[in-house]
Amino acid sequence: MLYAILCYDSEDVVCSWSKEKDAEVMTSLGGVLEKVAQQGRLGPVARLMPTTAATTIRKGAEAMVIDGPFAETKEQLLGFYVIDCANLDEAVETAKDLARASGSAGSFELRPLAVFNPIPPTL
Amino acid sequence: MTDLAWMHAALVSARPQAVSALLRYFRNLETAEEAYQEASLRALRTWPEKGPPRDPAAWLIFVGRNIAIDGVRRARRQEPLPPEDQISDQEDAEATAVGKLDDADYRDDILRLLFICCHPDLPATQQIALALRIVSGLTVKEIARAFLVGESAMEQRITRAKARIAQADVPFEAPGAVERAERLGVVAAMIYLIFNEGYSASAGEAPLRAPLCEEAIRLARLLLRVFPSEPEIMGLTALLLLQHARAAARFDKEGQIVLLDDQDRSLWNGKMIAEGLALIDKGLRHRRPGPYQVQAAIAALHARAARPEDTDWAEIDLLYARLEQMQPSPVVTLNRAVAVSKVGGAEAALELIAPLEDKLSGYFYFYGVRGALLMQLGRNDEGRIAFDRAIALAKTTAEAAHIRMHLDRLGKIDAPTC
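Output (structure tokens, whole complex):
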């Protein structure tokens, strides 16, 4: 079974870490990931940019584009895609295509990736 | 998880929201700040024992308000404070308190707090110091260090600023749309000013003053989080990130200024650039351009160029022309001249800046640019005069040293003909 481990923390707190502190935490996490990778169990790893860089697409007859992160607490995170886009316009277009195809309610939140390791270096 | 470092970070990041909400309750900056301080002390005592609250800001607001109200009552009745757990132990009440404060309240609270610091009666340096003290929560010592002044001088400056604010009319009613936009503009300008205080530092001062740049970025992010649909705030945040990303490459080991074209681009901070590019991309989609977005778009074109020769100078020229229309200023025209020289040659650029001399006769950078353009055209004697002028106007030794380097090169070019 593949598991996704989703990271939640206070963005305010994490964004106010010093460069050294950030590097320290990443190195520490990297140590754990390295072991998992050596066992051949590590999939893609991504770090998202802050929610200030987020854009939300509200599904509907005419998809609505809203600045900012997804804020609806009555809906749950069900999945994600990682898509290479030339710019935000292209990302929005792709999300709108998905919105039309899905036919249900809900939202897509677009978050640019700060870090993306598609294939773990040790595999 | 409730270790000291975590608590410190949580308190720092909850501060703007907590102080600004307490200010709305008490309508007095001094009371609001004291209530926050007291609540923080209580947090340091109770969180390790009971675990951190779900929403630290809401906890601080609730506890801070209780403490301040009790303070008033106690002063009135000379009664002792109720036991600790009656004040701090209110997990359910905390949730209710948050419920009452919707996002719109938070948004106007934070804007008000920042706006108060921008009071027009206060000189710019006091505005900045006050914002760093009250909104960011930097200590007087930290602010004094960043401003390169003594601690007692800074203490005085902040006390004076607070006294003026206390006498001034502070707008507590919710602002209308126009007022809100105006306040947002004033606050954005103040944040940019904080950034420039740090950014204009010389190499020797940079380590002390760089925290100002980081603090400005933090405040811009804060503003963007409460106003997520304002393209100019996206532009401002992007601009600060893109400029600060070059910090490590701006001075060489001897502390000399390194121009953009000569910077080691591998020293640029790729993470900040990526975030800046994402934000300006997002802002420009609104098709409501403003000066911050245009400046960020210019910075973005520099950031996107892997090598100096890849820079899209024609686009930069167009963007500066746009900025000139939005915000006519001789300094903008001077900046544009650099782009013009790359696109249309030094002659065209000299022509563009010729009419600016009256207005910029006291500006180091004007004579630096003029000297460099004259040098490109081989008009070395005139170039030398311009550079001498620039050295006389230089504010930092790095600026003067940078011009001297140009003069040295002139000397070498001249040598064979002598």
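The two ends of chain B are 73 Å apart (CA to CA).
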